[in-house]
Design brief:
alpha/beta, 10 helices, four-stranded mixed beta sheet
């Protein structure tokens, strides 16, 4: 992916020098942490759940550390990709007669406090609809390469574009409707809505890639394969097979490997946000 010597976004908030520690009230702190992590992992707004749990005691201190050259390059890369999402979605929203509100992307190390609650690095990248910010610990990219066998800079860009896709859903009112509907459904039916939401974010990531490549010619040989490989390797069916040895479709929350690849490619091939209507799709 060609990304150097291009505009960097000003909407990157670097919290890597912050150390967030947690306590509890009446023994509920750990439960709240677990709930928040599970909720964010499955695409649910944790603030909806956390408001019913006694307040956590969180302490944030500053512990400056020297960032490695690799980390600084990753930060620069993320800043460029975020700028690309801004350019693409500003244009798309303008064509729809709407105004795009640029999100903030927060870099953290180890743990972070968001408006959706406490999260540690294990939760992976996530988007918090309560503060309209995306969060990522740079160590995730090592997991993406080693644990999920998905190397490559365009695979890394796909991850960011997916989280920004959730921001687009928030701005369009899609995620609010899904979360409100999910609260009234059984777990199995709510999971089905979650899959639709996640696949749409994949499709939106594909739309971003289409517009950005047309405008800036960023793609190199093998880049699309990197993104599709990443989408495939984080499919629910593959992850469940690896962790449990068996697949339970009723518990899927993000979609199968095949679905995630297909919806990303659908967004990329069309470049049209209207082709990402997973909510009304007869077949996912």
């Amino acid at each position: 992916m060609l990304w150097k010597d291009r505009r960097k976004s000003d909407n990157v908030e670097d919290r890597r020098d912050e150390v967030v520690s947690r306590g509890s009230k009446k023994g509920m702190g750990i439960i709240a942490v677990i709930v928040a992590v599970i909720a964010m992992y499955f695409g649910v707004d944790p603030s909806v759940i956390l408001q019913h749990i006694p307040n956590q005691q969180l302490t944030t201190t500053s512990a400056p550390r020297i960032q490695s050259a690799e980390e600084e390059q990753l930060k620069a890369f993320i800043s460029v990709v975020l700028a690309d999402t801004e350019d693409a979605w500003n244009k798309i929203f303008k064509e729809m007669g709407k105004t795009y509100q640029e999100p903030t992307l927060v870099l953290f190390s180890g743990a972070v406090q968001s408006a959706c609650g406490f999260a540690d690095a294990a939760v992976g990248p996530f988007y918090c609809p309560a503060d309209k910010k995306a969060y990522i610990d740079l160590s995730f990219y090592q997991d993406l390469k080693q644990r999920f066998h998905s190397p490559g800079d365009f695979a890394q860009a796909y991850v960011i574009a997916h989280e920004i896709g959730h921001h687009v859903q928030k701005l369009l009112g899609i995620s609010d409707k899904v979360h409100a509907a999910s609260a009234k459904l059984s777990e199995v039916e709510a999971n089905k809505l979650s899959v639709k939401l996640e696949l749409q974010a994949d499709c939106f990531a594909g739309v971003w890639a289409n517009h950005t490549d047309k405008a800036k010619r960023i793609l190199e040989k093998g880049d699309m394969e990197e993104a599709l490989n990443a989408a495939s390797n984080i499919g629910d069916d593959r992850l469940q097979k690896q962790s449990r040895g068996q697949i339970t479709p009723d518990s899927f929350t993000h979609g199968t490997s095949e679905q995630r690849m297909r919806w990303f490619k659908r967004g990329f091939d069309s470049g049209n946000i209207n082709q990402c209507n997973t909510m009304n799709a007869q077949s996912l």
